[in-house]
Amino acid sequence: MLGIPVSKLYRICAFFDSDPDDAWDLIEGEFFEYEPGQARKRRFYEEGVMAIAKYLEETEGGSFLARLKEFFTHHRARVTRALVQRRIIQVTQDRSTLVIQGDLVFLQQRSVVRVLGTNGKGMAGTLRRIEEESAGLDGAEGLEIDVHFADFDDVEGRHWSQRGIARLARTMHDKGRITKARKAWVKAVADVAEDCFEVQRKVLESHEARVRSAMERARSKAKACAVTQQKPNAAERNPIELEAHHLFDAATRPDLAALDDNLLVISSALHRNFHKWMGNRPCEPKDFVDYLLRNELTHFEGSPSTRARQEQRQQKLIHRLELLQARYEGNRLLY
């Protein structure tokens, strides 16, 4: 991605390794990992690639020709944006960890720690420095609730918006006691995170529209509850309602949320009972199979004349759920 010859990359890595106390030190497990079975062959994380790019900029980017090349190609700017965007895509895969409110995307704090490449101690130190700055005479920007961060009643933990993340990153870069390699990463986050989150917000909202469309399509095609066989009848005093249930939970498996095979149309009462039985845990098809076998087998018994047909319906449904489980368990799709 950086366009660095392999021989030159080896020399750069040798430089980083030569002095363990150097400010550019790249730490295994934080900036790179060794390829399995490949002695000394490294796979760099986003932070590691950014550190190498920044090192090259400081050591070779000062000449007129280098600046001219950057002016025409904007290569490093594209690398910066691509790396930060990739990390943001990674941390927004689990929809249960984020809340979209207006134009802001709020991430749970543990996801923010991952975006910044820090830990709980680093986060606490950054917040302390922001409080000290905002209380000083220079009038530095403080943190505003519902702008930089928010606490939501129905979602666990503090959440931070893209504006809050950029503010944290700037403080980590300007005031944090971190290596040059880490400074390169948080500077990149400070510079482009807000724009990258705006792109991802539109992607997520477009995805939600596709999910709603898939759920409505599933409901309109279904004639009855897949379990109870009850049908909506407007003439009844309390007609049943059909709902599209995500067999793989939509929040933790957004890649499957708009997939037709992942939607099972059941009655609203059955839907409530299943999620009450599950509690707050994310569900998978195997959980619905367990629920059926423990709680809903009476819907597949029938009279002696229909029993064989009902058993066949039960087997067909369970086969569908087990096949879905086997096909997508641990297999995430791009969306």
What would you say this structure looks like, in words?
The structure is a single chain. By secondary structure, the chain is an alpha+beta fold. The chain folds into 3 domains: 6-83, no CATH class; 90-204, no CATH class; 222-328, no CATH class. 53% of the residues lie in helices and 9% in strands. It has 11 helices and 8 strands. The strands form 3 sheets. A 4-stranded antiparallel β-sheet has the order 3-4-6-5. Strand 3 and strand 4 (104-108) form a beta hairpin. Helix 4 packs across helix 8 (180-221) and helix 6 packs across helix 7 (162-175). It is elongated, with a radius of gyration of 26 Å. The two termini are 23 Å apart.
Keywords for this entry:
335 residues; alpha+beta; 4-stranded antiparallel β-sheet; 53% helix; 9% strand
Indicate the topology.
Layout: H1 6-18, E1 32-34, E2 42-44, H2 46-60, H3 64-73, H4 75-91, E3 98-101, E4 104-108, H5 109-116, H6 120-135, E5 149-151, E6 158-160, H7 162-175, H8 180-221, E7 242-246, E8 263-267, H9 268-278, H10 285-295, H11 307-328
Antiparallel strand pairs: 1-2, 3-4, 4-6, 5-6, 7-8
Helix pairs in contact: 2-4, 2-8, 4-5, 4-8, 6-7, 7-8, 10-11
